[in-house]
C-alpha cells in the first residue's frame, strides 16, 4: 500500500499536469482562433483590393440616368458615396437579357467599406450592400486627372474618367490601408 501522504503527493502532481495540459489546450484554441481571424481579415483585404482593381480597370466612359431620368456622369466622387462609376465586363453566365455594363458605388456605411451594384446601368438605385471591409472608421478618396492629385472630381465632360484613384481607409482593426488604382483605358480623357 501507499501512505496517505504519498497519495496526496501523487494527486498534487496529477493536478499540476492536468492544469498544465488545460492551459496548453486553451492557448492552442486561442491561437487557432486568432489565426483564423487574421486569415479572414487577409481574405477580406484581398477581395476588396481585387474588386476595387477590377472596377477601376474596367471603368467605362458612359454616363447614366437615375430612376427620375436625371443624367449623371460616368464617374463621380463625393456624392454620398466615395465614388460611383459604370464598368464593363459584368459576367452573364445565365445569358440573361441585360447589358454587360454595370453601375457600382463604393461607400463607407456603419463602420464598413461596402460596394453596391445596380441591377441596370440606368434607372433603379443600387441593390444591397456587399460588406467588404469591416471596422473602417474613416475613408477618403483622391483622384489623378493627369495634372496632379485632387480631392474632388468636377470635370465638365460627363464621359471623363480620372487617370487613377487613391482610396485610403483606416480603423482600429485594419490600421491604415491605401489602394492606388489605375483607371481603365478611357481614364484621363
Q: How are the SSEs ordered, and which strands pair?
A:
Elements: H1 4-57, E1 64-65, E2 71-72, E3 75-77, E4 83-87, E5 102-109, E6 112-117, E7 129-134, E8 138-144, E9 149-150, E10 164-171, E11 175-182
Overall description:
The chain is an alpha+beta fold. The protein has one helix and eleven strands. The strands form three sheets. The chain has a five-stranded antiparallel sheet, covered by helices on one side. Strands 9-8-10-11 form a four-stranded antiparallel sheet, with helices on one face. Strand 3 and strand 4 form a beta hairpin. The longest helix is centred in the first third of the chain and has 54 residues. The N and C termini lie far apart (95 Å). The model has no long low-confidence stretch (mean pLDDT 88).
Radius of gyration: 26 Å
Strand order of the largest sheet: 3-4-5-6-7
The span between the termini is: 95 Å
Measured as a percent range, the helix fraction is 25-40%
Which regions have little confidence, pLDDT < 50, spanning 5+ residues?
none
Strand content: 25-35%
* DSSP, total strands: 11
Overall shape: it is elongated
Main sheet, how many strands, which sense, barrel? Answer: 5 strands, antiparallel
Helix/strand/pairing category: alpha+beta
Q: What's the helix count?
A: 1
Elements, N to C (H/E): HEEEEEEEEEEE
Amino acid at each position: 500500500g501507499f501512505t496517505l501522504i504519498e497519495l496526496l503527493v501523487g494527486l498534487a502532481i496529477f493536478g499540476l499536469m492536468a492544469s498544465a495540459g488545460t492551459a496548453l489546450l486553451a492557448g492552442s484554441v486561442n491561437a487557432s482562433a486568432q489565426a483564423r481571424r487574421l486569415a479572414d481579415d487577409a481574405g477580406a483585404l484581398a477581395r476588396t483590393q481585387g474588386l476595387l482593381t477590377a472596377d477601376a480597370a474596367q471603368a467605362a466612359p458612359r454616363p447614366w440616368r437615375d430612376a427620375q431620368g436625371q443624367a449623371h456622369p460616368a464617374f463621380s466622387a463625393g456624392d454620398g458615396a466615395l465614388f460611383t462609376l459604370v464598368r464593363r465586363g459584368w459576367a452573364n453566365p445565365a445569358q440573361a437579357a441585360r447589358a454587360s455594363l454595370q453601375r457600382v458605388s463604393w461607400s463607407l456605411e456603419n463602420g464598413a467599406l461596402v460596394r453596391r451594384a445596380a441591377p441596370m446601368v440606368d434607372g433603379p438605385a443600387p441593390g444591397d450592400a456587399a460588406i467588404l471591409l469591416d471596422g473602417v472608421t474613416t475613408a477618403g478618396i483622391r483622384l489623378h486627372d493627369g495634372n496632379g492629385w485632387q480631392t474632388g472630381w468636377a470635370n465638365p465632360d460627363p464621359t471623363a474618367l480620372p487617370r487613377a484613384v487613391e482610396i485610403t481607409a483606416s480603423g482600429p482593426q485594419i490600421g491604415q490601408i491605401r489602394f492606388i488604382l489605375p483607371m481603365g483605358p478611357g481614364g484621363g480623357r
